[in-house]
Structures are given as C-alpha cells and as structure tokens.
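Quiz preparation item.
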C-alpha cells in the first residue's frame, strides 16, 4: 500500500476530483444521459436529480452525498486513522467558521501526521519486494500442480489453452504479432491489447525473458497462459505503478503471426517492457 497524496491535499483532492471527473467524462456523460433518461428528471432550475434515491430527493442532497463518497474514497488508504464523527464535526465547524483549533494548531497536527504517514509509507515500500517475492513463490508452487500447467527449467509456467498449427518464431529476435492480456497474480489487470482492439507487434529480443521464452514455445494460432516469476519478468525494479518490485505476473497470449524482424523496424511492446 502506498500513500499517494500528501495529507494536506487529501480533502482538496477529493473535492477537485468532482470537477475534474466531470470535465474528463463529458462524452461518456452524454451517452449515459441518453441511455438513462427515464431515471433522471429535470428540476425547475434546469439541473438534474436521480430518481429513486432514498432520502435524497433534491439536487443539494445528492451532490452532498456524492462529495462525501469522493472524500471517503480519497481517505480509504488511511481509514484506520480517521474518526468519522470528528471528521464531519471538523467540516461542520469549519463551514460555520467556528473551528475548535487555531491555524497554528491545525498546522502542527497536519505536519505531525504527515511525518507519521511518511514513515509508514517508507516502511511499506521497504517490505514490499520481500512480500511480493514470497507471495509469487507461494503462488507458483501451488500453481505448479494445477492440471495442464507445465514448468520449464527456467521456472516459467505455461498452459496450452489452444494449440495452433502454424509456424513458431524462428529466431530470438523474431517479430511477432499477438493479442494478450496481463494481470497480477491476484487477478488485477494491468494491460490488454484486447481492450485496445488492436494486436501488438514486437521483437522477442526486446521483451522480458519470460515473455520471449513463452512465445517461442507457441505456434501461430496458439493461445497460451503464462505465469512469469519475477526473475523472468521485471525483477527487483518492477514496472511502476502497475507491477511492483519482485512481482510475478500472468499473461494470456495468442500468437497471430511471426516473421523475421525487418531491419530498422520499431517494435510495439507490451506495457512495462
């Protein structure tokens, strides 16, 4: 777990995301409004409220609740440090211009808490490589015995989901065209050519060793699942922010095409390569 925002900015960030998300989602909002027109009614002022929300029959109540949700999301990583009753009291008192602490006391509390969070974040960061390595080894040890899973001498694990009948990559720098999706061992997705609706094309010489080894086993038309230990993947550095240090990863790969790499052709590589 990382603390992504300075404590001083948590509340401001939560409120800013209200306007930022509205700006960044204009097109989606337009589509969504058309699809859910029967669930939305316009008020006399021209603004909109959502029907059927218990206790929130006005725009003011709905907006207030939405902002509360955003603030809570921004505080999720430090929820064990938060007293919700005092949080709401602090908001009420400040909005009434009657805070119980002075500006100097506010700054003192904020700075002390920032130091505490920073120390915790550094501790977590220092422990993460070992934690990821142990988790990956335990996962792969268990996965090794799963039906259809084959472990190579290097430690790469793979499973044939569909066997093709085409050619295999002929050289270590062969150019391949693939569809793929990548996840962490807990199933968290981090990259997918399927989501982009466009296969990726790259040289096997320019990807992590686990990728190259796995794809070289495949024939065109095949679909394999690859479990890549950290030493065959992104190692101790990882690929921030999605792949942590010493993290094992999982890929499903379809080999669509392979050919010698033309001289001077720039590859398109998977995320994190």
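Solution:
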């Amino acid at each position: 777990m990382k603390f992504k925002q300075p404590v001083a900015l948590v509340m401001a960030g939560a409120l800013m995301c209200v306007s930022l998300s509205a700006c960044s989602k204009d097109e989606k909002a337009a589509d969504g409004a058309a699809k859910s027109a029967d669930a939305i009614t316009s008020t006399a002022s021209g603004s909109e409220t959502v029907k059927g929300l218990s206790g929130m029959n006005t725009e003011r109540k709905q907006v207030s609740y939405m902002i509360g949700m955003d603030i809570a999301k921004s505080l999720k990583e430090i929820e064990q440090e938060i007293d919700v009753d005092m949080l709401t009291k602090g908001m009420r008192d400040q909005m009434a211009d009657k805070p119980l602490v002075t500006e100097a006391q506010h700054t003192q509390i904020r700075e002390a808490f920032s130091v505490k969070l920073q120390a915790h974040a550094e501790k977590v960061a220092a422990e993460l490589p070992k934690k990821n390595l142990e988790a990956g080894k335990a996962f792969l040890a268990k996965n090794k015995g799963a039906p259809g899973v084959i472990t190579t001498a290097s430690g790469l694990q793979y499973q044939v989901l569909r066997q093709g009948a085409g050619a295999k990559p002929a050289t270590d720098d062969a150019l391949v065209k693939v569809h793929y999706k990548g996840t962490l061992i807990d199933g968290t997705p981090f990259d997918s050519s399927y989501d982009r609706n466009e296969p990726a094309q790259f040289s096997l010489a320019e990807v992590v060793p686990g990728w190259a080894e796995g794809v070289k086993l495949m024939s065109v038309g095949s679909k394999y699942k690859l479990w890549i230990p950290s030493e065959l993947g992104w190692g101790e550095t990882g690929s921030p922010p999605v792949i942590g240090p010493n993290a094992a990863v999982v890929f499903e790969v379809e080999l669509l095409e392979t050919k010698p790499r033309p001289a001077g052709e720039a590859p398109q590589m998977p995320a994190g390569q």
